[in-house]
Amino acid sequence: MNELLRAFLALLQRDLLLAFRHRGELVNPLLFFMIVVTLFPLGVSPEEALLRKIAPGVIWIAALLAALFSLENMFRSDFDDGALEQIALSPHPLAVLVLAKVLAHWLVSGLPMLLMAPLLALFLALPTPAVYALEITLLVGTPLLSLIGAIGVALTVGLRRGGVLLTLLVLPLYIPVLIFATNAVAAAAAGMPVEGQLYFLGALLVLALTLAPLATAAALRISLS
User: Fold this and answer.
1) How far apart are CA 30 and CA 25, in angstroms?
2) Is the CB of residue 99 less than 8 Å from the CB of residue 57?
3) Is 127 left (phi over 0), alpha (psi -120 to 50) or beta?
4) Which of 6, 46, 143, 163 is such that its CA lies 20 to 30 A from the CA of 16?
5) Which pLDDT tens digit goes with each residue over 165-222?
């Protein structure tokens, strides 16, 4: 168990170091997230009532697209240099090592969006209760995006141009997260309870944490075979 934990932490640290060495790839999803959200008031209307109404959908769609934009980097470099085969041949369970890579991906893509979201929410005139709800939905929902996306990346990592196929595979699975997260933020903005939506997102996260690493590990073995 101690060896498995050391392997998990070593792989997590390695992926974080590689991400910070390629700062351009690290910053691109966050810049994309910021640009998409800030362009909406310019392209639609600066009226506060309208911005407050569309803000939950705008922020969550931008977060979803930014997460999708950064997915392909999760396994691509390891596949190209052969490190992914070494990880698959490790004596440790591949699903646990996959979870380390998913966590690293969330830390460099999902966590910055989580920290940036309150500022963008205020920019779109969201009330304070809705900002709190937005943060909770992002905290629960962005790991879900990484876990679900890892399955699609693992299936397409061996393809030369798998970006379009990855989008087609992953985007339909993102729709429930998008619906319940935006509904929770909109309900909070209207002063309505949001526990039901948050419980559903939490249940999806538990389910994804349980099954997504196993499915990703199986897909990686198929891609490497």
Assistant:
1) 10
2) no
3) beta
4) 163
5) 788 888 899 999 999 999 999 999 888 999 999 999 999 999 999 999 999 999 998 8
In angstroms, rounded to a whole number, what is the distance separating the alpha carbons of residues 39 and 215?
37
The amino acid present at 89, given as its one-letter code, is: L
Question: Which single residue is written with the structure tokens 């990686």?
Answer: 220
Give the dihedral sign, CA 83/87/91/97: positive
Q: What is the pLDDT of residues 41-69, one digit of tens each?
A: 888 777 888 888 888 889 999 999 998 88
Look at the block and give the residue holding tokens 């299936």. 155
Q: 151 and 144 in contact (C-beta within 8 Å)?
A: no
Which value, in Å, is the radius of gyration of the alpha carbons in the chain?
Answer: 18
Q: 3-state SS of the chain?
A: CHHHHHHHHHHHHHHHHHHHHCHHHHHHHHHHHHHHHHHHHHHCCCCHHHHHHHHHHHHHHHHHHHHHHHHHHHCHHHHHHCHHHHHHCCCCCHHHHHHHHHHHHHHHHHHHHHHHHHHHHHHCCCCHHHHHHHHHHHHHHHHHHHHHHHHHHHHHCCCCCCHHHHHHHHHHHHHHHHHHHHHHHHHHHCCCCCHHHHHHHHHHHHHHHHHHHHHHHHHHHHHHC
Angle between helices 94-105 and 195-224 (to 10 degrees): 120
pTM of the complete model: 0.90
Structure tokens at 193: 């309870």
